[in-house]
Amino acid sequence: MAEFLTVAVSWLVPALLVLYAFRRMCFAGAALLRPRESPPAACFPVAVLVAAHDEEKLLPELLGALDRLDYPPELLRFVVVNDGSSDRTGAVLREWASAAPRRFLVDLPESVGKAAALNAALNHTGDASLAAVYDADTVPEPRALRALTGVFVDPRTAASTGLRLPRLATSGPPARYAALESLVYQYVTLAAKDRLGLNPPTIGANCCYRLGALRAIGGFPPGSYSEDIEVSLALAATGWRTRFVSEARAQSLVPGTLRHFVQQRLRWSAGLRRSARRARGMEAWATSTGYADRALGLICALSIAAGLTSLAWMLLWIAPQVISACIALSRAPRFTSPLALLAALAMMAPVDLAVSVFSALTRHRPGTLGWKPLRG
C-alpha cells in the first residue's frame, strides 16, 4: 500500500500540475490576443437591481453613481432591496427611491441572503428585458451600463460581466493581495475565456442578465454563497453564452483586514463547491473546483520535502502564475509599489494556501448566508 501511494504521488501530482499549468498558460496566451470586436451601440430596457444588508455607510456613493449613469432614463428602472437590515439601510434606500420616478423599494422584514433578495427584486422589473446587478460596495462609471448591455445585441448572449477595479487596495497586505488576485482573475482568466468563447462567469456585481434566460433557469439560487457562478454555469449548460466586457468599469472594495479576507475566501470556496452541480464540460468543471490547485500545490511541496517529486514540478506550477500576474499588472492602473506588493504576497500567500486547504479538506461551510462586510 505504501509503495502504491508513493507511486501515485510521484506520478499523479506532477500530471495534475502539468494540466493546471497548461490551462493557465493557455489563458495567459489568450489574454494577450486582441479582444473580440465590440458590438454596435444599443440600449435595451434595463432594471438595475441592488440588494443591501446593513450598508448605510456605503450606499450613498453607489446611489450617486447610479444617478450619473449615462443611459436613456426612459429605458431605466431601479429596484432596491433592503434585506432585513438592522441599521439605516432601509431609510437610505427609501429616501432615494422616493426622490424620482421609476425607482422601487422592496423592504424585507428579515434577511434572506443576497440571492433570495435579488429574486424578490425580479418581481418588480416591469417591462425590462435585462437586469443589471450592483452591490453596495461597487461604484460603476457612467458608461458602464451601456457597455454591459451592448453585447446583448447577440441573441445568444444571456449574461455579461464588467471589470471591477479594486478600491482602497493599499490599506494593508490583505487588500493588496486580494486586489492582485482580482486583477489576475479578470485581466487574464475572464479575458481569456471571452476571447476563446469559453463563457466567462459573472462576478457578482457590475454584471447584467437577460431576464428571460435568468427566469428560465429559476432565477438566482437561494442559499448560494456564489450565486454568480451558479447562474453562469446554469446558463452555459442550457446553451446560452456569457461575455466579459472590460470597458464596463466599476470600482469595488476588496477585503481590508485578515479576518475579512478569510471570511470571503471561506464563502467563495463553499460557493464554488456547491456550483459543481451546475457544471457541464471540462472548463465548467475546472471553474467549479475553485481553489483546488492550492491544495495540489501543498501536496507537491510536501512530496518535494519527502524526496518523492522534483522541485521542477513546483516551478512549473508557479511560473504561469507569475506570468499571469505580470500581464494583469501591466494592464491595470497602478495601485501600489512593487515592494509593497511583494511584501503582501510573502505574508498572504501562506494564509491563502492554509484557508483554501482547510476549506477543501473539511468541506467547511460558513455559518450563515450572510452579508459579510469587507470593511469595518
Question: Which fold name is given in CATH as the topology of the domain at 46-167 and 200-252?
Answer: Spore Coat Polysaccharide Biosynthesis Protein SpsA, Chain A
Q: Order of strands across the widest beta sheet? A: 3-2-1-4-7-6-8-5
Number of helical stretches of at least 4 residues = 13
Order of helices and strands: HEHEHEHEEHEHEHHEHHHHH
* Percent helix: 40-55%
Strand content: 15-25%
Termini separation (Å)? Answer: 51 Å
For the biggest sheet, the summary is:
8 strands, mixed
What radius of gyration results from the CA coordinates?
21 Å
Poorly predicted runs are none
CATH architecture of the domain at 46-167 and 200-252: Alpha-Beta Complex
- Tell me, rounded to a whole number, the average pLDDT: 89
* CATH-defined superfamily of the domain at 46-167 and 200-252: Spore Coat Polysaccharide Biosynthesis Protein SpsA, Chain A
CATH C-level class of the domain at 46-167 and 200-252 is: Alpha Beta
Structural class: alpha/beta
Principal-axes geometry comes out as globular
Structural summary, described in words:
The longest helix has 30 residues, at 2-31. The protein has an eight-stranded mixed β-sheet, with helices on both faces. Strand 1 (46-52), helix 2 (59-67) and strand 2 form a beta-alpha-beta unit. It is 51% helix and 15% strand. By secondary structure, the chain is of the alpha/beta class. It is built from 13 helices and eight strands. It has helices at residues 2-31, 59-67, 89-97, 114-122, 144-150, 173-196, 211-216, 227-237, 258-275, 282-289, 292-305, 311-331, 338-362, and strands spanning 46-52, 76-83, 103-108, 130-134, 138-140, 157-167, 207-210, 241-253. The termini are far apart. Helix 1 crosses helix 11 (292-305), helix 1 packs parallel to helix 12 (311-331) and helix 11 packs antiparallel against helix 12. It has a domain at 46-167 and 200-252: Spore Coat Polysaccharide Biosynthesis Protein SpsA, Chain A (Alpha-Beta Complex). The mean pLDDT is 89.
